[in-house]
Amino acid sequence: MWLYEAANQAAKERVVQVQEKASIIVAQVQDEAQTLLNSMSLQQENPSTSIFEKLDDYKAFLVVIDVDDKTEEVAAILNDTSWTSAR
Fold first, then answer.
1. What is the full DSSP assignment across 23-58?
2. pLDDT of 6-65, one tens digit each?
3. Where are the domains of the chain?
4. How many Å apart are CA 2 and CA 20, to the nearest integer?
5. Residue 23: count of CB within 10 angstroms of its CB
């Protein structure tokens, strides 16, 4: 009977050791995962994304300032010499 109790006690101690090691491993994995997620969030954005954002800004500018609509107005201003001083 004492052999059974000794084996049972040794098994319980081993279970505690395994649980402690498992907890340590889980904590390390969580730390690594957090580090990885943080580094992924700090990565620079893709250069092509920046280019497309600038193109979108340019397209928005073109909607507000349509050069084709202003061409006649600019030509009329350049042809109007009343605002320039006579040389």
1. HHHHHHHHHHHHHHHHHHHHSPPPHHHHHHHHHHHH
2. 888 999 999 999 999 999 999 999 999 999 888 877 766 666 777 888 888 888 887 777
3. 1-43, 45-82
4. 27
5. 10
CA dist 10 and 8 (Å) reads 5
What whole-number distance in Å separates Cα of residue 23 and Cα of residue 30? 11
Site of tokens 């390390």:
28
Give the 3-state secondary structure percentages of the chain, helix then strand then coil, rounded to 5. 85, 0, 15
Enter the tokens of residue 25. 């491993």
